Amino acid sequence: MIRIAAFLALLVVACSGESCTDPAISPSAYTTSDAVISSESVFIVELSLACANGAQSVTLYADVNGRQFPVTRGQDVGKYQVSWSLPHKQASSGTYQVKFFDEESYSALRKAQRNNEDVKAIEPLFSVNIDHRGAWNGPWVSTEVVAALIGILVYYLAFSAKSTIQA
Predict the structure, then answer these.
(1) Contact 125, 102 (CB under 8 A)
(2) How far apart are CA 74 and CA 66, in angstroms?
(3) Residue 27 pairs with which residues in a beta bridge?
(4) How many CB atoms sit inside 10 A of residue 20's CB?
(5) How far apart are CA 138 and CA 88, in angstroms?
(6) Closest CA to 132 of 84, 83, 95, 80
(7) SS3 of residue 132 by DSSP
(8) Which residues are paired to 46 by β-bridges?
(9) Which of 30, 45, 70, 128 is the most interior residue, by most CB within 10 Å?
(10) What are the CA-CA distances from residue 58 to residues 55, 76, 101 (Å)?
(11) What pLDDT does 80 receive?
(12) DSSP-assigned beta bridge partners for residue 69
């Protein structure tokens, strides 16, 4: 019985993620800039994480404007990525703050949301600001319309010149 209890305790310790103290990050981000060729604006945040305590398998969660996303771990040690998408009309230009939580602070965040408590009181492990310039919707007038108008103008000028010469 003691062996089973020891095994279960070891299993819990092995399955739980490590906590990170004093994180050092180097983030990079991508956002959709062309709405003509895509149906939604995509946000991708990649980062390298180094912890002062040497933790390497930190489980992270991201919070963007009240929506939570799991953060995926890369193949390289300390590499993480999170992505999400929004319709172009909802993805206004500006700065988006992405808050990253470890397991402990994420569970506190979820508990606060369930109990309708103030979620701003929960401190993230770190946060990253993403600048989104908005998505370009294309020119106001399509090139086909401009070409047709130029063709009509050339035809009118040629027809009026022909009428003047024949008169």
Answers:
(1) yes
(2) 25
(3) 47
(4) 22
(5) 13
(6) 95
(7) strand
(8) 28, 81
(9) 45
(10) 7, 13, 10
(11) 95
(12) 62
Which whole-number Å values give the CA distances from 144 to 37, 138, 139, 153, 159, in the listed order? 17, 13, 11, 14, 22
Span 138-155, pLDDT tens digits: 777 788 988 999 999 999
Residue 121 contacts residue 108 (beta carbons within 8 Å): no
Q: With a cut of 70, list the residues of the chain below it in pLDDT.
A: 1-17
pLDDT of res. 6: 47
> Which residue stretches of the chain are H helix?
2-15, 103-114, 143-166
Question: At 47, is the secondary structure helix, strand, or coil?
Answer: strand
Torsion angle of C-alpha atoms 52, 53, 55, 61, degrees rounded to 10: -60
| Residue where the block lists tokens 């994420």 | 106
Question: What is the reported pTM?
Answer: 0.72
Per-residue confidence (pLDDT) for residue 88, from 0 to 100? 86
